[in-house]
Amino acid sequence: MKLWLLTLTVLAAVPKAFSQDAGGALQAVAEMPPCARECLVTSIAKSPSTMNLTAVGCDRPTRDRSPAYIILSDVFGTISGVFVLQRLAYKLWAKLDLGGDDWMTVATVISGIPSTVISSYGVSNHGLGRDIWTLTPSEITRFGLFFWILEILYFVEVSMLKLSLLLFYIRIFPGRTVRRLLWGTFIGSAAFGIAFVIVAVFQCTPVKYYWQKWDGEHQGTCLDINSIAWSNAAISIAIDIWVLAIPLWQLKSLKLDWRRKIGVGMMFCVGAFVTIVSILRLRSLIKFGTDSLNPTWDFYDVSVWSVVEINVGLIWHNGTILWKELET
């Protein structure tokens, strides 16, 4: 079995062998300089075609987690959309003015629509949750393109979700000091979002090298995607904790009886769950990087947690605001 696999691998890798038998192909490899043989063996070992050959020869099962991801994306996207519609419908029914936080939430959902569509019909249909060696070259390239778009949309949505929450706090907390603090946080969060969107767009030079680099036939350079993801997650969690602490600190200044203060405090504490989700997402970043030999499989977990993080944030944020409006 091993000899058969080696012979087929060499026949697929050495042009000279196309016109010779297996013995001639092996002889051609033997005549190569040591450095050339090392390069050839390394390239063959890492190539998707060789991995596919090995998987078939060893009767490895075909893995596919894409159906679960499609269901997750569609269900969470629908639920978060319903919460936003309920919030807007109530405000229109009660003839309440739409504030900046409402419009920012609408913008977040609008950016989330293409994100959900690409998750279900872009990356999922082109390899996410499957082994890369089971895909065609065009599928791998399209997966890279769609994943690059999802990265950008993720940074946009995370930033806009924070901005929407900050605008809500600015609207309900009248204190001059806290409003200055909130506006400062708003500016910082906006800068955070813009910076990472720009980095995501131009992380590779040329840009298209992001989804073309896998075949080794294109020239270009890329930033360390793992470092980008970790730094974004760390800053995002720090901002979440800071934003969560502000309303809890302001509870003492709200003119509410102790029962309603406890209720409001618990309402804001639910936001801690969103931060916990963001922290749990950090674990999925361990396998997220440019050196992955099986990105369509390795990037599955971070994709799942990103969907959960964004949509849970929308659900909590809109549920919180709707609860407050009904209590008013």
UniProtKB/TrEMBL annotation:
Gene Ontology cellular-component terms for this entry are:
membrane
Keywords from UniProt, A to Z, are: Membrane, Receptor, Signal, Transmembrane, Transmembrane helix
Span of the secretion signal?
1-19
Q: Which locations, inside or outside the cell, does it occupy?
A: Membrane
Q: Where is the Rhodopsin domain?
A: 87-315
One Pfam family here: Fung_rhodopsin
Q: How is this protein situated with respect to the membrane?
A: Multi-pass membrane protein
Tell me yes or no: is Membrane among this UniProt entry's keywords: yes
Residue intervals passing through the bilayer: 69-90, 143-169, 181-202, 228-250, 262-282
Predominant localisation class: membrane
Q: What InterPro entries does the entry give? A: Rhodopsin_dom_fungi (IPR049326), SAT4-like (IPR052337)
Similarity section: Belongs to the SAT4 family.
The entry's protein name is Pth11-typeg--coupled receptor
Lineage at the top is: Eukaryota, Fungi, Dikarya, Ascomycota, Pezizomycotina
